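Quick one: structure for this chain?
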Amino acid sequence: MARPTRTADERRQGCMRAAATMRELARRSGTSNPHQFAGHFDAITNMETQASGKWRQCFSGDKALSAQQLRLLSFVDANVAKLHDAGPCGLWHALWGDEQALWQLCRTRLDSDGPMTDDRIWSAIVDEFTEERDFGSTLAEFEAEMLLAEAYGRPLTLRHLTEAVALCRLHQALRSLAVLNIDGRGIVRCLRVCLADTSVLSELARLGVLDGVREELADVIDSAEADLPALDRWDALASKVNWIC
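Got it. Here's what it folds into:
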């Protein structure tokens, strides 16, 4: 049976997944390029991939990882399949995942500091939260925290970008189903702020997916709503977030 033909979107996404996965595995293994990583891989598996340059195209994002390659990489890192599927900080799930899973990516629904919390710590404490914000409150609180970070020059994390994407997609999905009396203009601005943040840009560049992520979000961050002044957004949130005076 012939393999199903991949669409252009699927090919692009596969290449982004490959680049981010390979570069993260290289970081975890203490290597910095495909040649060094291949040497590390060969030492673990007793294979010979270094001379053939087996990982080079995947490392550069020119080729997606095959199912066989992912199985081989599991000898280096048992969590590689999850990393490849979810992406760094769950970014692939936020960008391309099922809409029904997006709410779980929004840590602000439970804790305002959620996007700043290390993943290992978050996994240990997430079940301790007993109250959950609704969607409108989460949207407002997340934007307010972003405005605060912007005002004080605090660096953002990739988790901020993941949550901004998830909240934006959720707002779009809800708006497509019914009349929605929730201001979603600010979350579009949040996406643009994330993609202007030095820390976020540096991490995306390290993973080899900066241009790809920008392309994925271009239609949103180039919209007029992304240019809204910060002062206008503070005013819009004043009645929605209790710590804004």
